[in-house]
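User: structure tokens for Phosphonate-binding protein, please.
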Amino acid sequence: MLRSLMVALTATILASCPALADPVRFAVTDIEGLEALQQEFGGFQAALEAETGLDIELIPVSSRTAAVEALNAGQVELVLTGPAEYVVMKELSDLRIVVAWQRPDYFAQIAVLANGPIRKLDDLKGKTIAFGSVGSTSQHLGPAQALADQGVVYGKDYEPTIISRNVAAEALIRGDIAAVGLNFGHLNSIRKAFPDQAFAVLARGRDLPNDILVARKDIPEEVFTKIRDAFVEHGGDLMGAVLQGEDNQKFKGGTFLVDIKDSDYDYVRSMYRTIGVNTFSSFVE
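Assistant: Done. Predicted tokens:
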């Protein structure tokens, strides 16, 4: 009789908290393929497991849209994404913010040739300005907003065009375009790639909102709390694990920010409006 009661009690306890036994699935919107995901986040996966006692599983997604679909279908619990992607994902799915991943020196710029004809913002009017990936926070939306903040209107005062940054740098050197919109790290890369050329920054935007880790709306509260507490209490160890990934060096010198609200991303929403996008129900392609 006593043994039967103990078995029943154990079964009841296990049934009441199945989420802790199930893996917590983690996806990243800008990394395709499981191998690449493991290379970049394998160390972080192990560190988060150690700090939370949870089973963390890396789940590759093929696109931003696929990440939203996976959240809504209950196929992932956590997604790390960029600020431009976040505002659309928030519109398409009921998300919970876990923590922001700070990127130091994360701001947009408008670069020109230092010895070229463009010396002030008014010189850009009627000219062509190249931007990077469509919808990118720091290569498209941010640079466009940096100009708009100073009264230079997207698609009216100048002609925007989308070109990859190395091709854009070559076009700038040839004089085919007047300026390039890009972030701080990308400009440093261009300077290394073209050491015989001098570039100058004509406009700089404010620091951009950070990448953000979001959770599915129905993630068990105990799981959510364990994960958030791990970032609060062991952020240094987790960031060290993140930095094992080559592409994750963009987070070097950064930290995890917990006191983050959806309204902190309203600046990104203003960027979308600047390029003529007034709804956030789909990703800009």
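User: Anything notable?

Assistant: The longest helix spans residues 34-52.
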